[in-house]
Amino acid sequence: MKLFDLSDRVAIVTGGNGGIGLAIAQGFAEAGGKIALIGRNESKGAEALASLATPEKLFLSFDLSSADACRRMVNAVLKRFGRIDILVNNAGIAIRKAPQDYSEREWHDVLETNLSSAFFCSQAAYPAMKQQGGGKIINIGSMMSLFGAPFAVAYAASKGGMVQLTKALATAWALDNIQVNAILPGWIDTDLTARARAEVPGLNEQVLARTPAGRWGKPQDLAGAAIFLASAASDFVTGAAFPVDGGYSARA
Questions:
Q1: In degrees, to the nearest 5, what angle opens at C-alpha 166 toward C-alphas 194 and 231?
Q2: pTM for the predicted model, two decimal places
Q3: DSSP characters for 5-71?
Q4: Strand pairing partners for 244?
Q5: What is the rounded distance in angstroms from the CA atom of residue 196 to the CA atom of residue 149?
Q6: DSSP-derived pairing of the beta strands 135-140 and 86-89
């Protein structure tokens, strides 16, 4: 359907060399998009790039925890493709420990990687999107945007902030025809959550018991929602946060 066609649209996906980010990028490529994957690991990035079903693709290695790095990344994508239509802010890390045990550096590392990078990448992409007449920004939140967890205070703070950032940017840039929305993944089977299952006793059983769909999600489960939010089908949708969680957040 043309409503969901991403032909000739240029998409940046941060944290795009694995897990949810890569699955979203693969969905965009299949819908006709041109893809810029952003990550830190170059060998992993090369492998991810090879999996994309488009000849128009690029991997860039950046640590996006500073505003300057975000600007340089955006400029590199503009130099290659000439425009930016879609930005997926997916870069993220988690440090699991009791709140009283976090160091100051660990707190800032999580907030800077997960939340500050989303703001600074959005800020860097804004001029190009405004000049070309519009764009789409998709922020990747979490179930921790809605719920707390004793082992993930910094991560939860960053992902809760992601939803409020989404709403604020949506209201600021709506007249520029830039739609800003968030996807809130449920418990998705990725390398990050595999470590969580190993570190948090009983997590797997708790997730399965609460999720009406009766399973962990797959990264590919996020692609459809992302394509919707990246395409013309969502031109009057902004400031929203969409759980993609197998019903986890709907269950009391």
A1: 85
A2: 0.97
A3: --TT-EEEEETTTSHHHHHHHHHHHHTT-EEEEEES-HHHHHHHHHTSS-SSEEEEE---SSHHHHH
A4: 185
A5: 12
A6: parallel
What six digits make up the tokens of 87? Answer: 């930005």
Provide the residue type at 160 as one letter.
G
Parse the chain into domains and list their residue ranges: 2-244
Look at the domain 2-244 and name its fold: Rossmann fold (3.40.50)
Is the pLDDT at 1 greater than 80? The verdict is no
Q: What percent of the chain has pLDDT over 70?
A: 100
Residues 6+ apart with CB under 8 A from 108: none
Per-residue CA distances from 243 to 103, 187, 188, 226 (Å):
31, 11, 12, 12
Identity of residue 221: D
* DSSP reduced 3-state for 182: strand
Instruction: For residue range 8-55, list pLDDT tens digits in order.
Output: 999 999 999 999 999 999 999 999 999 999 999 999 999 999 999 999
Rounded CA-CA distance 213/55 in Å is 36
Catalytic residue flag (residue 155)? yes
Active-site option among 102, 126, 155, 248: 155
Give residue 39's identity as a one-letter amino acid code. Answer: G
Counting beta carbons within 10 angstroms of the beta carbon of residue 49, is it exposed (0 to 12), middle (13 to 18) or buried (19 or more)?
Answer: buried
Mean pLDDT along residues 116-132? 98
